[in-house]
Specification:
The protein is α/β, with parallel strands linked by helices. Helices cover 19% and strands 25% of the residues.
């Protein structure tokens, strides 16, 4: 992820699978050649697919060979060949023949099942697969955008299907150093929750004593894919709080709703003090680490020299509250963030 974090909309790099020096053929690969390409390049298998909505799924993928150890919060790329079919109803993609044998790859943060089938805590380290929390991107952001390349193909796949999984897990968005009693605050939007799940599972598994809080803002409650797991963990661990925050439910938009709360944006909840109230913690820089992942508007990173947006994201609000961003130093009062797309 780094400066170009898991992006479902960006076109991203693609690599040719043609042998060096071989000219592109005059026609796309036929079914026999497609299978030959899969056999040659695909190195992982979908072992489970859990659909939450039509556009939101968890994919559990097992690589043919175990990956080297990696840290919760990191990411890697998965891919499929351009010869694979695209989901009906997604933006069409016209490809020249010389690209029909290429593989398109996208990087995604590695999530975590959080609970085994028997209800015990499940971390990244205790499963032989990688879990990805992925949104189907049906169209480009605007008329000038390139069609999304990977997810329209990925959402055609099911259990037993094969794909490409890169061997290198990377990324600097990790837990870093912290004290056993520090408050760990994870703020995300949508599938930006994925790395936070992995981080929290590790904290719980290693007996962290301080407050652990995940706050995730989504449009609808159905978009909280791990809600049941979080509710179970809250019952089990008294220092853990999960806050599923919505912006488009009836109680968010209808002022006459008996439980009207307004649109629950992280920025507003933080500056009003409501987030600290819901978390049951003052969320003070003196003992709190903050992690941000998701929509760039929520994160609020402004490149040097650029104009600040009218509605600031979390970074300037956290700085005003006494937090600081430092990629080298991990201690209380530090902000870490992942630019998710």
């Amino acid at each position: 992820m780094s400066a170009s974090t898991p992006s479902q909309n960006a076109s991203g790099p693609s690599k040719s699978v043609l042998p060096p020096g071989k000219r592109p053929l005059a026609a796309p690969p036929d079914p026999e050649e497609q299978q030959q390409l899969r056999d040659q390049f695909y190195n992982a298998t979908i072992i489970d697919r859990i659909d939450l909505t039509e556009d939101l799924s968890k994919f559990r993928i097992r690589p043919d060979e175990p990956l080297p150890p990696f840290e919760p919060g990191q990411y890697l790329a998965i891919g499929l060949g351009n010869w694979e079919p695209r989901l009906s109803g997604t933006q069409t993609q016209e490809l020249p023949v010389n690209k029909t044998r290429k593989i398109v790859r996208r990087a995604y943060s590695i999530s975590c099942p959080m609970l085994h089938a028997d209800g015990t805590l499940a971390t990244q380290e205790c499963v032989d697969y990688l879990e990805f929390y992925i949104t189907l991107v049906r169209h480009g952001e605007n008329a000038a955008s390139k069609p999304p390349a990977l997810t329209p193909r990925l959402f055609c796949k099911s259990v037993g299907d094969r794909l490409v999984m890169e061997r290198k897990v990377t990324g600097k968005y990790v837990l870093g150093s912290y004290e056993p009693d520090d408050t760990m605050l994870f703020l995300g939007t949508g599938t930006g929750e994925a790395p936070h799940n992995a981080m929290v599972a590790k904290l719980l598994a290693t007996g962290h004593r301080g407050r652990i809080v995940i706050a995730t803002s989504v449009r609808y409650r159905r978009d909280c894919a791990y809600l049941k797991e979080h509710e179970t963990l809250m019952q089990r661990y008294g220092n853990y709080v999960y806050l599923p925050l919505t912006t488009r439910e009836e109680e968010n938009i209808r002022t006459d709703h008996p439980h009207f709360v307004g649109k629950q944006y992280l920025q507003t909840l933080f500056t009003s003090g409501k987030l600290a109230e819901l978390a049951g913690d003052p969320l003070a820089p003196s003992n709190t680490h903050v992690f941000l992942c998701g929509n760039p508007a929520m994160i609020g990173y402004v490149p040097p020299g650029a104009d600040a947006p009218e509605n600031p994201g979390m970074l300037p609000l956290l700085r005003a509250a006494g937090f600081h961003y430092d990629v080298q130093e991990h201690r209380a009062g530090t902000i870490r963030f992942e630019k998710y797309w």
